[in-house]
Design brief:
It is built from 8 helices and 9 strands. It is of the alpha+beta class.
Length: 339
């Protein structure tokens, strides 16, 4: 006896379009789609840009991606009304970090929640951090039903609703000397976290904040970070979360500098690396202890590429395939600084 009328609302899926004042607003009662807008400044980036011989810019659109584990999410929960206690088996990857959150969500003391994790979680890559809302729901369902409740996510549910990495629109600028030395960086990052910020987001944006200068000795830094919501599924931790979004942009910029100045890309990298006697080293926006490692048969690879060029006239290159050599310098934080 209920007649339902559905009205299609306008959607926004591009993070840059979500910034527009006339963009469809996802959540009623909010002024726009920007969930967070923060700026940071380290050193004197304005002076560095004003006095630099060159300024180079690059625009990067990093897409969404996901590392899909072998096993999907799984939760088995049981409620004991005599003790007002829960016993939960789940393949969440961090049981100690989430125990206090779950007990507070279920409104029981910590000693009334037993959270068990199997020795093999079926892989995670950070994705299984998204299990915790389902733990609360399944435990609450067990209490309401008065019997154990099991939920095993199927593959289609996982692909549709588990966390993926954020897509990010980045404009990165560098103040550069004639020899390719980078004097300052200016980051403008727009992070797409989907329709809702699912904890611990925007951790993907801020995990790398202390190391936005990468492996390079750059003392001046300007940063603007904006988090927007769009009509997409929520995002979360994915395999070195935040690292690919930063280094794809930074290392593409280093390559652009080399091309524009007519320099060897490897020479530009070496010129900007933290010197060997500079450790322990504190970055402009944080601090980390890193060590330079070098090696690899670069000349040998170049000779093989040259030989391949000659041979490939009859083979790979005749088919339109290329033989390339790429360089990158990446420093991965050993712990999170998302706080």
């Amino acid at each position: 006896m209920i007649e339902v009328e559905y009205r299609v609302r306008p959607a926004v899926v591009d993070p840059l379009l979500a910034l527009n004042p006339d963009a469809p607003v996802l959540h009623d009662g909010f002024k726009g789609n920007v969930a967070s807008d923060r700026t940071f400044r380290y050193g004197n980036p304005e002076q560095a840009f004003a006095s630099a011989a060159h300024r180079f810019n690059i625009d990067i659109r990093y897409p969404r991606n996901s590392c899909t584990p072998i096993e999907t999410y799984g939760v088995v929960a049981e409620y004991d009304p005599s003790d007002d206690a829960y016993d939960v088996l789940a393949n969440f990857q961090g049981p100690f970090s989430i125990h206090a959150v779950l007990s507070r969500a279920l409104k029981v003391p910590g000693n009334r929640l037993r959270l068990r994790t199997p020795p093999d979680s079926g892989g995670s890559f950070g994705v299984k951090q998204g299990v915790f809302p389902y733990i609360v729901l399944v435990a609450a369902a067990a209490r309401a039903a008065g019997r154990p409740v099991k939920w095993i996510e199927d593959r289609l549910e996982h692909l549709a609703a588990s966390v993926s990495a954020t897509n990010r629109a980045t404009t990165l600028s560098a103040a550069v000397a004639d020899d390719g030395r980078i004097l300052a960086l200016d980051w403008d990052q727009v992070e797409d976290c989907g329709a809702h910020l699912r904890a611990p987001e925007p951790a993907t944006l801020y995990r790398m904040h202390g190391n936005l200068t990468g492996a390079y000795d750059i003392r001046h830094l300007a940063v603007r970070n904006r988090v927007v919501v769009t009509n997409k599924t929520p995002t979360g931790l994915n395999r070195g979360f935040g690292g690919p979004q930063v280094y794809f942009a930074l290392e593409r910029l280093v390559q652009r500098i080399a091309v524009e100045l007519g320099l060897d890309p490897l020479d530009v990298i070496r010129r900007n690396l933290i010197p060997a006697d500079g450790f322990p080293y504190r970055t402009a926006s944080g601090h980390c202890l890193i060590r330079e490692l070098s090696g690899g048969d670069r000349r040998g690879r170049q000779r093989r590429r040259a030989r391949g060029t000659q041979v490939a006239a009859r083979g790979a290159r005749a088919e339109g395939r290329l033989y390339g050599i790429g360089y990158t310098a990446v420093v991965e934080p050993s712990v999170s600084n998302m706080g």
